[in-house]
Amino acid sequence: MSGKVMNIIKNLGPGLLFAGAAIGVSHLVQSTRAGADFGFGLLWALLLVNLLKYPFFQYGPRYATATGESLIDGYKRLGKWVLITYFVLTFLTMFTIQAAVTIVTAGLANNLFGITSNLTLWSIIITAISLGILLMGKYKVLDHFMKIIISILAISSIIALFTAIFKSEHVYSMTQVLPKGATEIAFLIAFLGWMPAPLDVSTWQSLWTLEKNKTSEKGFGTKKALFDFNTGYITTVILGLCFMTLGALVMYYSEDEISSSAIVFAQQLIHLYTSNLGKGAALFIGIAAFTTMFSTTLTTLDASPRAMAKASELVTGRASKKYYLLWILLLSVGTIVILGYFKTSMITFVKIATILSFLTAPFYAIANFMLVKGKYMPEDKRPAFPLQFLSYLGIAFLILFGIWYLMSI
Predict the structure, then answer these.
(1) Average pLDDT for the chain
(2) Where are the domains of the chain?
(3) Three-state DSSP class for 373?
(4) For 325-368, what is each residue's pLDDT tens digit?
(5) 305-317 burial, b if ≥16 CB within 10 A, otherwise e?
(6) What is the pTM of this model?
């Protein structure tokens, strides 16, 4: 039995990279804020968005294993304008996304190491280390690193959650609420934007799946890829529930509000755990939280350039290994410039990045759905009717909520 379990763990890869990219700002910041501000009132939003976004993320590994090409290749098949739209949207959002995850990581680094409170300096250090890891080890480093990090965070979060449940003396309402007013609606859209992740992560997932197939000794077919993806996806949903519950149990009845300062937020996040597990757990939890955000920073720093390199090859019609290096250096420098010269609160960075991700989500949803049910997909690999029906619901949800937000501004 143990040999079988070890073999399953060994075969996991892209799904945990997905979890590594997802379990970061959306969970540590947004889910915690949702619990702190609304209690369990936004539980409907967390569950619904994870359900309705599921097909479009799943189509990444499904399409890659069935066709041997990435979703980005598929976008070109749909028409060059689709590929160029993808290229432009990714370019416009990747710097803000990277800045958002890096500043949260910098706040946690300051809390853990305390060497300097200069977040720009911490951002430079974190970006430089991530860049070094990726340029030296690339995919294999990510693959192995993620299994350790996700395990640490999952175990510590679940222990903290059950401790908080047993310690809590409050009676909590499960009444669901629909946010009202521009500020609350903006938070809801931001929450939905990165829960469990931005929808363009589906293109990353297709690229990671192809990489895994290259490094897997026994191949990485559709069945394995979907099991791997579902493992990562379920993990992100469970941990999203954990962080929302911790926020509700520890902060909803307190007078504290989630701080817009990355440094103060890091202290609040550690308090979520230490108030339940004791002050002795501070170091362990600090390491778990930092490694989680560092993994997100590392993953996004690899994925956006990888996707842009592929898109550059398809747009120009010329393949070159230099594209990845060019984009990863550009993203690294651009992130530091944004954090150094356009100083603002952590919450503002997160809000901008997450709302942009939600408003662009219908494009990825429609494009992914067209690919997996179109002529480029083998008939026996196309999604069954229930998944197709869920896709139509998901597209309608993303479009209608986007319109609702724009009308509320």
Answers:
(1) 84
(2) 2-79+135-282+342-408
(3) coil
(4) 999 999 999 999 988 877 666 777 778 888 888 999 999 999 99
(5) bbbbbbbbbbeee
(6) 0.87
